[in-house]
Amino acid sequence: MKRIKIILGIIIAFAVIFLSTGLIFKETAYTTQVEVHKPLDEVFSVFNDSSKINNWIPELKSIEPIDVKPEKTGSTYKMVVSDPKGQEITLREKIMAFVPNEKVTLFFNTDVMFKKDDYTFNFNNGVTTITNNSICRGNSYLFSCVLPYFKSKIKEQDQEHLNNFKSFIEKN
Question: Which residue range is the domain that position 70 belongs to?
């Protein structure tokens, strides 16, 4: 009986710690960055060309415009990506800010989370630096509890996409 109480106590402690994660961490934030040896205008143009995006985001299966605005800000797209198991995930992308050769802010909404990517572009000494400040929030309380434990994996994937972009544009 004593062992059962100890085991139950440990399980309850882990459950309390896990469930309190969602109360403590409302959102998960991180920064990724890459330096590209190309001119700023070329980098910005290629980065925002939706017909080329699958060259650095291999998980992207399709991107369809829903509402395209001439100034880009406010435009929305339906994107379909595949997860590592090959299952398709549909998400909605909205361009929140678009300042040519300076900044692009994207907002993604899926069934399980919201994600905001704030890309800034800087040019110095022949190198364009792309910096992405990301914020993720769970759509549900339980996913909010899980999200902080996967921060490194999400950040790693975003960094891989930026590295893929660098490789793609520097080859061409």
Answer: 2-171
Helix (H, G, I), strand (E, B) or coil at 42: helix
Compute the radius of gyration of the chain from its Cα atoms: 19
> What is the widest separation between alpha-carbon atoms in the chain?
71
Residues 6+ apart with CB under 8 A from 112: 138, 139, 140, 143
- Residue 129's pLDDT band, with cuts at 50, 70 and 90, is very high
| Residue 22: CATH number of its domain | 3.30.530.20
pLDDT at position 9 over 90? no
Whether the CB-CB separation of 85 and 113 falls below 8 Å is answered with no
Q: How far is CA 47 from CA 43, 72, 99, 141, in A?
A: 6, 14, 13, 34
pTM: 0.89
**Please, what is the angle between helix 151-171 and helix 40-47, to 10°?**
120
Q: How high is the pLDDT of residue 120?
A: 98
Name residues whose C-beta falls within 8 Å of residue 143's C-beta, 6 or more positions apart in sequence: 112, 113
Counting the structural domains of the chain, the total is 1
Expressed in angstroms, the distance from the first to the final Cα of the chain is: 69
Report yes or no: 120 and 109 within 8 Å, Cβ to Cβ. Answer: no
Pairing mode, if any, of strands 28-36 and 127-138? antiparallel
Q: Give me 104's structure tokens.
A: 């692009």
